[in-house]
Fold this sequence. Notes:
The complex is a heterodimer of chains A (367) and B (485). Chain A is α/β, with parallel strands linked by helices. Helices cover 51% and strands 7% of the residues of chain A. Chain A has helices at 6-9, 12-17, 29-34, 41-53, 60-67, 74-78, 85-98, 104-116, 140-143, 146-158, 173-178, 181-194, 207-217, 224-231, 251-256, 261-269, 293-296, 298-314, 325-342, 352-359; strands spanning 134-137, 163-164, 202-204, 221-223, 244-248, 273-274, 319-322, 349-351. In chain A, helix 18 crosses helix 19 (325-342). The longest helix of chain A is centred in the last third of the chain and has 18 residues, at 325-342. Chain A is globular. Among the domains of chain B are: 102-219, 2-Layer Sandwich (Uridine Diphospho-n-acetylenolpyruvylglucosamine Reductase, domain 3), CATH 3.30.465.10; 223-415, Vanillyl-alcohol Oxidase, Chain A, domain 3 (3-Layer(aba) Sandwich). In chain B, 35% of the residues lie in helices and 19% in strands. Chain B is built from 16 helices and 20 strands. In chain B, a hairpin with a 5-residue loop joins strand 8 and strand 9. The two termini of chain B are 17 Å apart. The mean pLDDT of chain B is 93. Classes of the chains: A alpha/beta (367), B alpha+beta (485). Chain A binds chain B through residues 13, 16-17, 19-23, 25-26, 35-38, 43, 46-47, 50, 53, 55-57, 59-62, 65, 80-82, and chain B through 26, 28-31, 33-35, 37-40, 49, 51, 77-79, 95, 97-98, 119, 139, 141-142, 328, 330-331, 334, 339, 341-342, 393-394, 475-477. One iron/sulfur cluster (SF4) is lined by residues 18-24, 41-42, 45, 75, 78-79, 81, 83, 85 of chain A.
Amino acid sequence: MKNSYSDLEKLKNEMLTCTMCGFCKNVCPVFLDAGWDTGSPRGRMTMAYGLVTGELEPDENLVNRIFQCTQCRDCARRCPSSVKCPEVVLSARRELVKRGQAVETQMAVAKNIIHTGNLYGDLEVAYPEQEGEVPLFIGCQHLSRPNSTKRNILLMQRLGIKPRIVKEVCCGFPLEVMGFEEEHEKQVERLKEAFSFDEEPILTFCPGCKVHLEKISGKKILHILQEINNRLAKEQIAKPVNAKITYHDPCDLSRGAGIFQEPRDILKKLGCEIIEMKYIKNASRCCGGGGGILTWDSGLSERMSMARIREAIATGAEMVVTACPTCEQTLKKGALKITEENGNKPFPVVHILDMLFKATKQSHLPS
Amino acid sequence: MPIVEKRAKPESIERIREIVGTDSVRTSKADLYVYGFDAGMHRSMPDAVVRPQNAEQISQIVKLANEHDFAIIPRGAGTALCGHNTPVAGGIILDLQKMNRIKEINPGDLLCVVEPGVICDDLNNALKKYRFFIPGPASSEAATLGGMVAANASGAKALKYGATRDYVLGLQVVTPTGEIIRCGTRTLKNSSGYQLEKLFVGMEGTLGIITEITLKMAPLPEKTAACAAAFKELVEAGQTVADIIAVPIFPAQLEIMSDICVKAVNKATGLGLPECGGFLLIACDGHPEAVKDEIRKVKEICEKNGAFFIDYTEDAKRIEELWKGRKQMLASLSVIKPEFSTVMLADDMAVPISKVPDAVKGFLEIQDKYDIYIPPYGHAGDGNLHTKVLLNPENKEHWLQAEKAVREIYDLVLQLGGTVTGEHGVAISKAEYFKKERADSIPFMRAIKRALDPKNILNPYKIFDWDESFLSNLRYPVEFSKKEA
Lengths: 367, 485
Ligand SMILES: Cc1cc2nc3c(=O)[nH]c(=O)nc-3n(C[C@H](O)[C@H](O)[C@H](O)COP(=O)(O)OP(=O)(O)OC[C@H]3O[C@@H](n4cnc5c(N)ncnc54)[C@H](O)[C@@H]3O)c2cc1C
Ligand code: SF4
Ligand code: SF4
């Protein structure tokens, strides 16, 4: 069993369909960082092929390259032959984890989820349960920021959305992207026990949760911005933002869920002038926070976020707005790092929900 | 020429580390494995991957290679299609992707100067604001300028805008013995002796390592108009091509598709092109008035030759839509037989323009004879025809069947007075037929190689020095005995 890559073998056809054209190279944030072909999607396809044919061993360098992928999926978008490179990477990760190749930091995250149901291993995080009309899945990231979650829920109420909140556990997405197959399956079971998928649609704050919940449940999961965009009217905006902003599309929200117009519509309603970056919508560049890379290679993650912040600064906008808690945090780190280098004030990174909360604060609507 | 291994030994690699720094040398198995592949069908493993930063370092490495007798394969993005980058005798891959500075853009002198690792699309993005461009291959989003010069790449616009060779004004090159030389000029004209800069065009990394390129720029056209036309018979489409060029009108692009291709595009994209025997896509560009006049004439010629469907537009969005189908051709073709893959066999033949219909007809007959998929399409305006062989790459019989078909295709192309490679080059995949095609010039090419590279260091055993079958060193999981291949 140890030497047969049965999981990866199933994707051999993807590897043979890959024409090695290299069109995926210059969209991959990892390749763009260091420029070695081994760090490109094409390189990862080739290494996976080497594992399947038995020509390659999972040595340190190979393992590193397989885990140095943010699962941003831009390679799959660009591929003219519709090759599913991100899936091949995930399958390779499952194979490697089975062989004991996960590192301490990743195992720590996995253990957190398994033992506490929460990404950060925080037993305390829970939002007070409440009755309501629409089921809401808050997600680990937002749960770990109780104040901002409170504001988000207030915001929903201002817009007439009555969320039903239960004690939830992690959706299991981090386990899946890091390659913890068994643990992921068990987590999904735990989730299905804790959280009912009977009623649709389910709302969520987190792009990753949106994509993953949809995948594991087959149910309709709405990202909160979809609902907000339907409800937000001019008169609900007490304090228009009136700023020049740029918008960073989170990978899971844009490429993953096809949601890139809604946040822009909302930003326009808020009075923002959007100055677009070079890479946007479904061709957006990863912030450096996806695919477990934060724990695998924090230096690489930091360089990616710096690259994205530089792109944002180049637009001449006053701030970058995003719609994902991971993107927000990662980009903030990148902005700080740039500050360390140039001594300027950190470039502001704002979550769209925070912006919405402030702009609708003095609304006459109930809050 | 029989292959003698030219491996880089650990002590040579150690010396290289001293030259370029430890971080710029990779020897892990995964790195060597990955760099053993490129976009072609072949592969084998190098002994190290080295990323130099400048010509001086490259010169030192080349001198070391002469001293220690190991091979050097210069490499750009690795998008070449014929085994160009395959280290058949071992040695080191010189990855030039990080030498990627655009050094100068000089509209007044109509030139720009770049390092070899600059990507074609990146250069064109930079040139756009000056309203210039360099015509690139279909792989322009990945291919480097160094690779384009070394392969004399050209694209769909070659009829009007020429190939990479037409843009090379000057080069800095590290020779196979390690000297750093400059050839060519910064002038648009030069009659100063041998045009050495052109000698390095299309040399496939066998004669030198290009470290700087001075390129002429073409003016970005102000306006583009496009015309799509469907014909019952492929010959009518072919005749239309010949008539357009005979006017003379040089469209920026003139693409031909056979019925299978139209069906494949429709199936994959839902574009709804009319089912027909032959389909033409034509684009004219330049000054708005001239474009208007040209495309009108093109339309009339299509009508005269019996086109039953004509779509004509100056709207940029619609033009983009029309080309979408053509651009997705490769991906579309794999939809015909999802369990098959496209492989780089007989991928870019060129014939005299008037022979395009004969060639396409012949290819289709060969396809039927061998019961394999070889859909032809191509840049009819410059006689360049692409085919894509679709097969199961794990099935030996498929390969052997395809080999027979490919041989017939090549024979037909040579019979029609064409070349087995209009765009992609020779390296390994085309070597056998190239030697037939260019029999009388091969001794001269060899003499140049021997004189400049006496130790056979740079990308050895390629082009005229490749004696084995085009099915050897395949990257697919299938093996042939010597007799079979
Ligand atoms: C999908 C696809 C479409 C393509 N379409 C076209 C097309 O329309 N037209 C066309 O002409 N080609 C086409 N190609 C082939 C290929 O992209 C071109 O030949 C391109 O110019 C290669 O550039 P590269 O940077 O990838 O070079 P590589 O593949 O890295 O190298 C190509 C050759 O050049 C040599 N070389 C590279 N850099 C240097 C240097 N600095 N000094 C010396 N030698 C060097 C290498 O040794 C090798 O022999 C296509 C390829 C793909 C995958
Ligand atoms: S994964 Fe797709 S884009 Fe990347 S090299 Fe393979 S075929 Fe090309
Ligand atoms: S998913 Fe993103 S990071 Fe991973 S290989 Fe593809 S482009 Fe690179």
